[in-house]
Amino acid sequence: MNRLPLFALFALVLFFMGTADASACAACFGKSDSKLAEGMNAGIMALLFVITSVLAAIASFFVFIIRRADTHPLPLPTETLEPSKA
Asked: Could you read off the pLDDT of 39-61 as tens digits, one per residue?
């Protein structure tokens, strides 16, 4: 029997038993007027701004493509073929 998976499982259990508990930050603990909570809120707003601007840029690109397709239509494949010389 291969003992490596059993040893890996035992090492993983020991690793998780030895980790320290996570402490709650000021926003989660209830003190929402601290500098840590203000910084976290500013970080959330910055990330929302970045995500919104990227999504707006993608949407405006597709609007540009749709408008361009309306003003500059491609010829149909049947319009570009020359009649066969039979």
From this structure: 888 999 999 999 999 999 999 99
